[in-house]
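README: folding subset

This subset contains proteins for which both the sequence and a predicted structure token string are available. Records are stored as plain text. Below is the entry for MOSC domain-containing protein (183 residues), shown exactly as it appears on disk.
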Amino acid sequence: MKDQTGTVISVSKSATHSFSKQNQNAINLLTGLGVEGDAHLGETVKHRSRVAQDPTQPNLRQVHLIHSEILDELRESGFDVLPGQMGENITTRGVQLLDLPTGTRLHVGSSAVIEVTGLRNPCNQLNHFQEGLMQALLGRDEQGNLIRKAGIMGIVLTSGEVRPGDSIRVELPSEPHRPLERV
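--- output ---
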């Protein structure tokens, strides 16, 4: 996998556990915590189903990123989904997010660094938003393995402001690379 660069298309946050997040002019990423003012901010899990299992788990889902190319694909399939509507904090273009290995570092804007922790697992809330959306974000590879296409999750290594138009530089971890798993 060669060096990749991309662009931030949109940034979003929500102070409540709503499904969609509101687009913003900028978001602030806080080291070890996530997106300032977002319901998922914190060192320990904030996702309600994870909190119910064990509220002391580390928060590996501080920042949700999704590639705008999947939004294009969904539109071609008849869905109407805009940036932020599937709960992502950062909508990207030009980076093959789903192909990144675990531990990849994304340098976003002038100073923010996000470490990729895994895949977002599509949930049934997607179908409440638009019927059939969850199935549209799942696929199968040639071997029949499940492919999750609803974006990736990460933790904030270095604080910084992120705005639409900011560049994204991909820094791959040392080999051997570990494929992304759901977190």
